[in-house]
Amino acid sequence: MADGTESESRKLLGRLREAMATDEAGQARLDRITHLIADSMGTEVCSIYLFRDAETLELCATEGLKPESVHQTRMRLGEGLVGRVAKSGKVVNTPDAPSAKGFRYMPETGEERFSSFLGIPVQRLGEKLGVLVVQSRVAREFSADEVYALEVVAMVLAEMAELGAFVGEGAALSPLHQKSAMFRGGTGQEGAAEGHVWLHEPRVVITNPIADDPHRELERLNEAIEELRVGVDRMLEMSQHGDKEQLQVLEAYRMFANSKGWMRRMEEDIARGLSAEAAVEKEQSQARARMEQVQDAYLRERLADLDDLSNRLLRILTGQGKQTGADLPADPILVARNIGPGDLLEYGRSLKGIVLEEGSVGSHAAIVARALAIPLVVHAERITTEALNGDHIMVDGDQGIVHLRPEDSVVTAFRDKIAMQADAQARYVSIRETPAVTLDGHRVNLVMNAGLMADLPSLESSGAEGVGLFRTELQFLVRNKMPKRSELVALYSRVLDAAKGKRVVFRTLDIGSDKVLPYMKPTDEPNPALGWRAIRVGLDKPGVMRMQLQALIRAAAGRPLTIMFPFVAQAEEYRAARAEVDKTVERERILGHKLPESLEIGAMLETPSLAFAPQKFFDEVGFLSIGGNDLKQFFFAADRENERVRRRYDTLNCSFLTFIENIVERCEQSGTQLSFCGEDAGRPIEAVCLAAMGIRTLSMRPASIGPVKSLLLRTNLEQLRQIITEGRHEGVQSVRPAVTEWFRQQG
Ligand code: PEP
Ligand code: MG
Q1: pLDDT digit string (tens) for 274-311?
Q2: Considering only CA atoms, which residue is closest to atom 9 of ligand 1?
Q3: Band (523; pLDDT cuts 50, 70, 90)
Q4: 45 - beta bridge partners?
Q5: 393 and 197 Cβ atoms separated by less than 8 Å
Q6: Torsion angle, CA of 38/27/181/373, rounded to 10 degrees?
Q7: β-strands 74-76, 56-63: how paired?
Q8: What angle do helix axes 214-238 and 276-293 make, rounded to 10 degrees?
Q9: Closest CA to ligand 1's atom 1
């Protein structure tokens, strides 16, 4: 690149910095900037378009177009050449704008006189802010140098916008991150919460996008890159014995950290007058824009790696980081792209709510949020770009909706909702000790699902009559290495201590499918939900299962012990697992450990096949628990993790209820204890219908016990069963409408 061009660029940036330093109003500054750019680029026109809302761009300043069109000319995202630049995040450079694809003639601007057009997106880390355009009369394509120079300017404009340099009158000049915004995501954990944003990884703020001394900036960049490389090498060394996937990620990091192309681009940015951090951010913004376009999963991941690396580099350069020294605000609501279960546990119950841009209903973070009963919304796209630390925020976990900086009317309605929930909670506390007996005298046993130490206090506070499902894998998932047997013994005995004699059903490790242990060799399976998971792993590689069984027996230390095997698809699997228990008991006896006072061994019914097992199986199994989450996914062939189909089939679908009825009948014939421990057990309407079908033990999240009990106390199960039977005879698809109408009539 010619030195002359670089120094031109630096001169222009120097003048932009002067513009930034004045105490002019936003509009005057924008006017001055368009003038400066047109002058420096030698074009007749320079215009700046900014977003007035997510869908509309507004001409906010121009040199060369008719002044009266400022704040009058608007276009929708994707409309015209400017809209195209904004939508695609890509440069449009054409010598003949009127013939270019998507051109829209806007008579009020007088732009028909200008033939060539160069439009550059103004964006900051994936956040679209507007479009910078230069136009000129002569029909020519702008050179690569000119495009590059304008990209550097666009980057500085984005930083200036972020710092509030263009704030003025009108929506398009309203300060960034101050408008209220609503995000629609998915429900991770129900409940409503109001509080203030706490960004798990705060945005890095660049206060000096322009620098005078490129040599000094290059030095800073090189020093930071060196620190980054050393850091990545250290991580690589530490994980040489770790899993393959983690190593691959780190190798990719190292590749980027040593990438010549990346370095060269940043060096060029600096030569043009950007500071080291602005250069990093410019490349990061462009990589993010590319990420939006890329379909290929592998490439997307690599771009995400680069994004992560850029964040690290920015933190090194600016000294800003996770530990900013800021205190958690009052009523913190955590906002993050994603978060691991370990980090979330560290925050613990101090959080009032959680909003994730990624995440999924079955993710480990969601599991922890549920255990802590913290409202969680997942898939709230772009929230980390919009939210600032301390912003007022309301999280509606029931609907999967988040209100950021909400309007007064939303605040009032939302607070009403929270108050109603608080009233309901108070009602549930008042029936905590009341047994769940229906109006027609049926006693339903309400127990809770658990898996973390954080769950234990709920045993008292929820009124649960025991633990119907202790998901032992959660303890394995929240660690970064395999727990030792002695640790498990300590853990399980704490659980039994906390249960104070109430029955605890320990489910052996249910890993595989969506639950992948970070320290186990990943297996590449075409369809993990139907793959090598749960008891299949336990039987094929019995080492961990044996250790777990030993730990359970030692933790029981003479107390009663209940063990349940997950995902049993045929009787033989149960028998093989049972034989492992017998062997372990024998070994423990020989070793002189105290044996459990009583031992119940059961299986989870999660695949339809088990419901059709030979009668002998029903006679021999200690008890059965329907894992409705998995059972439903296999019954309807609808992936429980797939947002598209997850809710497609209703639990109150007549075919499913008939299937449940068959299981209940088979268990009644053989006198087999039966419970239900999927998520549906915690949904009041579904729960009472399951009870009406004959299931008398329901295991659910602790927070659901109050609502489920409250409805059971007001329900006549025989009458409800009648409603369900009538619906089935009529041949409806789901009995939900009839059941809801019946409850409505009951008041
Ligand atoms: C289920 O499948 O219903 C169940 C309780 O197990 P998990 O959700 O842990 O797979
Ligand atoms: Mg399951």
Answers
A1: 999 999 999 888 888 777 777 776 777 777 777 778 88
A2: 471
A3: confident
A4: 135
A5: yes
A6: 90
A7: antiparallel
A8: 60
A9: 627
